[in-house]
Amino acid sequence: MANFYTDNPDLRHHLTHPLMEKIVALKERDYTDAEKYDYAPLDYADAQDSYDKVLEIVGEICGDIIAPNAEDVDHQGPRVENGRVIYADKTQENLDACRKAGLMGMAMPRRYGGLNFPITPYIMAADIVSRADTGFENLWGLQDCAETIYEFANEEQKQKFIPRVCQGETMSMDLTEPDAGSDLQSVMLKATEQPDGTWLLNGVKRFITNGDSDIHLVLARSEAGTKDGRGLSMFIYDKRDGGVNVRRIENKMGIKGSPTCELTYKNAKAVLCGNRRMGLIKYVMALMNGARLGIAAQSVGVSELAYREALAYARDRKQFGKAIIEFPAVYEMLSVMKAKLDASRSLLYACARYVDIYKIYDDIAKERSLTPEERKESKYYSRLADALTPLAKGLGSEYCNQNAYDCIQIHGGSGFMKDYACERLYRDARITSIYEGTTQLQVVAAIRHVTTGTYLSLIREYEAEAVKPELQSLKDRLIAMTAVYAEAVDKVGSVEDTAYGDFMARRLVEMAGNIIMGHLLVLDANRTDSFTRSAEVYCNIAQAEVTKHSEFIKNFAPAEIAAYKVD
C-alpha cells in the first residue's frame, strides 16, 4: 500500500522546523484547548503526533485511492446536466473518501468542527494531494475559502457555513467575469440590496473552479454607478437557495477533473460578508493570498511527481546496454529537477510558517489586546509572508512547469504518449503559472519588496545563521551573489524611468528568489544532511541565473527598451 506522506521524509523535515514549536503553542493558546476538547493536544509533542497521524491518513488516501483514480478522472471528466455539475465517478469517490476521513475544514477552529491545524500542515496535505491528482487538489483545497468566512463574516454566518465545510461541503470563489480577468476592478455582477437585508445577484461569472459548489464567495458590484474596486463587496451564496446555474464547463488542456464553470446568476439570494465596499480592497486580497499559497503547494506536488516519474523511468530504461540514468545528460537533468523541487518546497514552507504566525496573532487580537512585542512580531511576519507569497507562487509554478517538461524529455517519445502519467502531468502543470495571478502578476506583487529592501533584509538574516563548516563555502557563494544582486538593484533604482524599472522587475525578483531559496536549502542541509546535494546543485543554478541577470542589467541601456516594443 502506497503512502504519499510516509514515503517522503522531506515532509517530516519541514513539519518539524524549529519555528513550528512557536506556531503550535500560539495556535493552541498554550494548549488550553485541551481543557475543552478531549482530542486537543496537551503539548507540542502531542500536537506533532496528531499532525503526523492525519497526514498519514492523507498520504494513504492519496496513494491508494486518489492517485490510482487520476487517469480515469482525466479521461471521463465532469459534465453538466440541467444546470448542475456531475463529477467524474472517481472524483466523487475521492471526495467521499476525504469526507469520511474528516479531511475537510482542517484549518478551522474546533468550535466549528475543524481540526484547528496551523496552515503549515494543511499546506503539506495540499502538497501531498497535488502529487496524487493535481485537479482534485482544486476541489479539496477550496476548503481554504472558509478562512475568509472565519476572518471576515459575522458570527451567525460562521456558525451557519463553517461547520458545513468541515462536514465536507465544497466551496468556490466566484471572482472572474468574461470582461474581468486579472483586472477584478472591472467586475460588474450586480448586487441589489433587499428590504430584509439580503441581496440579489445578477450577471455572469466565468472560469470559476468548482463553480457548482455548495457555498460560494462572490465578488459583486454593490454600489450603483461605480466602476472601480471601491464599489465591490463580498457575498456568500448558498446553493440551497437557488438562482445560480452552470451554463457550461470549459474544455481545458489539463486538470480535467476540476470543473471550470461559466455561471449565470438570476436573482440569486446572497448575504453580505463583512463590510460593503471592502470586497476587492480587503477580502479578495486576503482570499487570493491564501489561494496563491495553495497553488504554490500544488506546484510543489506536481514537481514531486514529475521527479519521481522521471527517476523511476531513468532507472528502468536501458539504452546502449545500460540504464539511461548513468548518462551525464540524464543524471544532470534529474539532479536539477530535484534541486528545483527541494528549493521550491523550502520556500513554500518558509512562507507557510510566516503566514501562520501573523494570522494566528490576528486571531488572538480578536480575543485580547496584543502586547507591544506581539504586535511587532505580527507586523514583521506579515511583511515576510507578503514578500514570500508571490515568490513561492511565481517561482514555484515556473519550476513545476520546467520539471514537468524535463520529465517528458527523460521519457523521450514514450513521454508524449498517454501510456505514461507524465503526459497528464505536463498538461496539468501548465495552469499553475497562470491562475490565481500569472507569474507576471506575481512579479508586480514582489517587486516592491525588492525596492523597499524586504528581500535584502531577509537575506541578511539568513546570512547571520550559523552553518556547519562543510556548508560555509555554499554560504559564501550566496553572500557573493547578494552583493551582485544589491548592485543590480541600485543600478535599476538609479534610473528615473518607470518603464525601465518595470522592464527589469522580473530579473530582480528572480535574483532575490534564487538567493533566498539557496539560503533556505543551505539551512535545510544544516539540519538534515540529505539536503546537501540539492543545496550544492541549486547554488550552481542560482549563481548562473544571478550572473546572467546581472550582466543583462549592467550592459542594458534604457533606450534599448524601444527594440522590445511590438507594434
What does this 3D model show about the protein?
There is one protein chain. The protein is an alpha+beta fold. The protein has 4 domains: 1-169, Acyl-CoA dehydrogenase/oxidase, N-terminal domain (Butyryl-Coa Dehydrogenase, subunit A, domain 1); 171-277, Butyryl-CoA Dehydrogenase, subunit A, domain 2 (Beta Barrel); 279-436, Butyryl-CoA Dehydrogenase, subunit A, domain 3, CATH 1.20.140.10; 439-564, Four Helix Bundle (Hemerythrin (Met), subunit A) (Up-down Bundle), CATH 1.20.120. The protein has 17 helices and 11 strands. The protein has helices at 9-15, 19-27, 44-76, 89-100, 119-132, 134-141, 146-152, 155-166, 279-316, 328-364, 372-411, 421-429, 439-451, 454-463, 472-493, 498-527, 532-554, and strands spanning 79-81, 84-86, 171-174, 190-193, 199-209, 215-221, 232-238, 244-249, 260-273, 318-319, 322-323. The strands form 3 sheets. Strands 3, 4, 5, 6, 7, 8 and 9 form a 7-stranded mixed β-sheet that branches. A hairpin with a 2-residue loop joins strand 1 (79-81) and strand 2 (84-86). The model has no long low-confidence stretch (mean pLDDT 97).
